Amino acid sequence: MPYGVPLRGIGYAVGGLICIVISQQLPGVGWFVSQIPAPLRFVILPFCVGLLAVQVTPDGRDVHRFASSWLRHHLTPRQSRAGRYGRFNSRHLRMKGVCTMASPFQGASPGPGVLSGRSVVRVRGNARLSVGDAVIGPGQLLIVRAGEKVRF
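and the corresponding structure tokens:
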């Protein structure tokens, strides 16, 4: 080989071989894997996995980086509030520090909310915040003192 064998390709081939050996032990799948002839199963398939994994670059990244980001994307929760991830059924949000609330779509309304305790809300951009009969526009502040609750 004029340029040598990439070490990543050897690593991918070993990973493919390990997956094949483990899949032989699984019920149901193991029978199908064991029906493949041994030279094809232990030499040709891992070689093909290593060769393809080195040459394929989904999104311009290495295969292992793409697979890890794909798994992270599909396994993490879809919602985040105040730096915490999870599924939230309540519309109440308790936070400390600065929080930016933005609508995902222009003109969309996030729904009713409640501010309680000491809070300062600064309205920016072309947003408007309706509190009771009052409307707070861009550049204005809403100050909530300790013990007060404001529904918006």
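(Above: one complete record from the training split.) The chain has two domains: 7-75, 91-152.
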